[in-house]
Design brief:
Layout: E1 17-23, E2 30-36, H1 37-40, E3 45-48, E4 59-62, H2 64-67, E5 70-71, H3 74-84, E6 88-93, H4 99-112, H5 134-143, H6 149-155, E7 159-164, E8 168-171, E9 174-177, E10 192-196, E11 209-214, H7 223-230, H8 237-247, E12 259-260, H9 262-278, H10 286-297, E13 302-308, H11 315-327, H12 330-337, E14 342-349, E15 355-362
Parallel strand pairs: 5-7, 6-7, 12-14
Antiparallel strand pairs: 1-2, 3-4, 6-10, 8-9, 10-11, 13-15, 14-15
């Protein structure tokens, strides 16, 4: 074992669409439209309006965005999520850029790479690529993933809340920015998506944030990344973030396709805590850890991968960086890319502001 620190379209464009048109006797009035075949039975519904005598038949397309129910009040949304035992998804957006937002994006970029070009390329961007407009990133996310029928189906499983990044709440009789709440620290005051757990009342992460995906370097999630986020297994913020980083790696490793077993997860958490406490990366006490897990599960064949982030990185940055570190090691990547019967991932930040990640697998 080792340790590693999208106006003109050609005809093909319409191949997947059905065409409909209806005009009056003079050929002046009517409607011409293209209907997405794949979405007819899904989210882009073709609704026929009742017609008056002599009136032309009209077809109206209802967009996915019009059908998704986004709440706009934080207290009401959290109450609805709690009463329905449904996870709350919050989309934080920016309507316009500001010097503060641009500086935040640039600061994260510099801290992540600087002149050393050492930080993970988020969404496979070159490490030194300059950030784009943050407001444009939000518009891209809304017109892309959030307007997609497949994503919309997944969103049905959540209470949805849409807030500007400067949203405020009342706390102790005072109005204060929502981003000042400690649970939103890993959003880095940037647009993005956060998920709060209201499904698992018996878990320590109940009513806590379990996903925080800020639009780093003003780059929103793709459709594939959004679907990955919406399908993550139940777990803590750190566990789910590391699993997200593994699943969204371009090579699509399979180590999280098995069962996320609590005993294995506990082992990964404990070892990450140990590394964070000592500030030393490694497989310390692996034999005793492997024996304990094998005894609890009644099976053997435990393998382990460990990695550490650069200092002062946010959670998402650190998680992606650790996965990239594993990719550079054939031994580690063999374990990460393989499918296992049981798996567990977690990461913990040390007092040195370094994230220590552990992956445990039982074949």
């Amino acid at each position: 074992m080792e340790s590693l620190s999208r106006k003109d379209a050609d005809p093909a464009t319409y191949a997947g669409f059905s065409h409909c048109s209806r005009f009056d006797e003079q050929g002046k009035s009517g409607v011409e439209c293209f209907v997405d075949k794949k979405s007819l039975g899904n989210r882009l519904l073709t609704r026929m309006l009742s017609f008056l005598a002599g009136a032309p038949l009209l077809f109206v397309l209802t967009s996915v965005a019009d059908e998704v129910d986004w709440k706009t009040d934080y207290q009401q949304a959290t109450l609805s999520a709690k009463q329905s035992s449904t996870n709350l998804l919050i989309y934080f957006y920016a309507e316009a850029d500001s010097p503060k937002l641009l500086n935040l994006s640039e600061e994260r970029f510099v801290q992540s790479g600087g002149q050393e070009v050492r930080q993970v390329a988020y969404n496979n961007l070159p490490s030194m690529q300059k950030p784009l407009s943050i407001a444009a990133a939000c518009r891209e996310f809304e017109a892309g993933p959030l307007a997609d029928a497949e994503v919309a189906e997944k969103l049905d499983d959540f209470v949805l809340l849409k807030l500007p990044i400067d949203a405020t709440i009342m706390k102790d009789g005072k109005e204060r920015p929502l981003f000042e709440e400690s649970m939103f620290a890993e959003m880095l005051h940037l647009p993005g998506v956060a998920i709060l757990d209201f499904k698992h009342a018996d878990k320590p992460y109940y009513q806590d944030i379990v996903s925080a995906i800020p639009f780093l370097r003003a780059k929103p999630m793709t459709k594939e990344q959004t679907l990955t986020l919406l399908d993550l297994p139940a777990g803590t913020l750190t566990q789910r973030t590391l699993i997200y980083a593994v699943r969204t790696h371009p090579e699509r490793p399979l180590s999280t396709m098995g069962t996320m077993h609590p005993v294995v997860v506990e082992g990964a958490t404990e070892h990450s805590k140990y590394q964070a406490k000592t500030g030393v990366l490694g497989h310390q006490n692996f034999s005793s850890r492997a024996d304990r897990i094998a005894q609890a599960l009644g099976v053997g064949g435990l393998s382990e991968v460990c990695a550490q982030s650069w200092s002062d990185e946010g959670l998402l940055e650190g998680a992606i960086g650790c996965v990239r570190a594993w990719r550079t090691s054939p031994g580690h990547w063999k374990a990460v890319r393989a499918q296992h019967h049981y798996y567990g991932y977690d990461m913990v930040r040390g007092r040195n502001n370094v994230w220590y990640a552990t992956g445990l697998f039982v074949q």
